[in-house]
């Protein structure tokens, strides 16, 4: 009975129309990440940052899970071993595809945070710098997203699940951003089998035992079918 840890990136949501960060017309080719995805950028111009995430929240709402999201939810519910789903994505397409207990290590568009008192609540569709925190009532709200330079969430749970896994699978991530990009070398060091599923080889492709390329909406359901019927 194999325990599996899965790490997903923007590539799994690309075919749902949410785009990626570093592909040719990715988000970071159209926005300066220092302006919209760092605490410094937020303190310089909170309205710009809220607008950026309001637009991404609207895109996410208009998007639908694709067969890759659905397949991972099927794997979670039918596989005899434990399937831990970690995502770098801030969209909720895994959950809308039926996945449970998804670990959003970079936060989620559906969450709001008060950077003064630390309160968390479900994010409204549109946030702005003046909207008051429901707890301390100060205008100190931000999207509950982990920005560059901040500590990703759920790292302890992820490390636990990684070292207990028999297989580590990275899906649709370029292997550019740590600590997520380092999971494959941690898995290898622990003697855990590694598999990459991606449209094209990632920057960390050389560290994977097995690599399958193709669109996630095709190769993820194929892989899940194999696991469930083996
Ligand atoms: N199917 C499978 N993989 C795809 C598809 C697809 N249809 N389309 C693109 N990809 C792959 C690309 O080949 C690339 O490897 O998705 C990956 C996207 O890479 P990035 O844009 O760098 O996204 P990601 O790896 O998730 O970025 C990690 O960086 O900016 C931060 O916080 C942000 O969570 C993000 C993190
Ligand atoms: Zn507060």
What is the number of E strands? 9
The ordered string of helix (H) and strand (E) elements is: EHHHHHHEHEEEEHEHEEH
Largest sheet: 6 strands, parallel
Q: CATH superfamily of the largest domain, called what?
A: TPP-binding domain
* Rounded radius of gyration (Å): 18 Å
Bound molecules: adenosine-5-diphosphoribose, zinc ion
Unreliable segments of 5+ consecutive residues: none
CATH architecture of the largest domain: 3-Layer(aba) Sandwich
Condensed summary:
With 230 residues, the protein is of the alpha/beta class.
Task: Describe the protein in words.
With 230 residues, this protein is of the alpha/beta class. It folds into 2 domains: 1-16 and 65-106 and 153-230, 3-Layer(aba) Sandwich (Rossmann fold), CATH 3.40.50.1220; 19-62 and 110-145, SIR2/SIRT2 'Small Domain'. The protein has 10 helices and 9 strands. It has helices spanning 11-18, 27-30, 33-36, 39-44, 46-62, 67-78, 93-96, 155-164, 183-189, 216-229, and strands at residues 4-8, 83-87, 103-104, 107-114, 120-122, 141-145, 167-171, 193-198, 210-213. The strands form 2 sheets. It has a 6-stranded parallel β-sheet, sandwiched between helices. A 3-stranded antiparallel β-sheet has the order 5-4-6. α6 packs parallel to α10. It is globular, with a radius of gyration of 18 Å. The structure holds adenosine-5-diphosphoribose (APR) and zinc ion. Residues 9-11, 14-15, 20-23, 26, 88, 106, 172-174, 176-177, 198-200, 202, 215-216 line the site of adenosine-5-diphosphoribose (APR).
